[in-house]
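quick one: manganese (II) ion bound model?
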Amino acid sequence: MTEPSILGALTAGMAGGTIKTVDLTATLTPEYPVIELPPEFGQAAQFQKKEISRYDERGPAWYWNDFTLNEHTGTHFDAPIHWISGKDLPNNAVDTIPPQHFIAPVCVVDVSKEVAADQDFILTRGHLENWEAEHGRIPAGAWLFMRSDWAKVVSPDNFKNEREDGAHHPGPDAGCVRFLVEERDVIGFGSECVGTDHGQAFHFDPPLPCHFYMHGAGKYGLQCMINLDLLPPTGAVIVAPPLKIEEGSGSPLRVLALVPA
Ligand code: MN
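yep, here:
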């Protein structure tokens, strides 16, 4: 085969270094924080790892672990079935979402300066319109990632930034989410914080608008990501296939970005 192909150019670019692979995934540890709901609701389990054998009498030549985790622990994917607004949509769980949706371009909106000054920063339609004036229209089928540099804003042991009145981290308001869903037809919204919604979004109208509108329209969520500062505003491609859990509402996963060097 002498004809240059798109996939050949891709693999040659990855091998030759003109396309970098950036890992947007946090390491799963027992300490990794999970979202906490008011005490009357069911709670998610934290990651647990139990050694089965490690080259010892339990298995002389092999090492392996059992693990326990919640569908929404660590860097993870939210499927439409996660929210009541998306519960009756077709192909709404991690095992039935069309696999081509797991590879998509990304637009990265950098609000790290704003978040450094205000941990309760709210992303609005206006911020996205300003971004588009500089970088062009957000294309249909793209992810919208909100870069906050969250790991630099809070200390590692205070990732959720919980206070007496709940969590404090940035997120979009309803107008921003509706713009992305209804006028831009994105594939989903991604964040470095513990959830795609704002920390105080229980008090928004409607509550948790990113979950409500995104999942109600069959869109996805990614959260607890890292390294969004290594992505360009446009031009990167996200590879994010969740585990194929039967009727799964979401799943921890490895999120990779292919980035032009
Ligand atoms: Mn989730």
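The mean pLDDT is 96.
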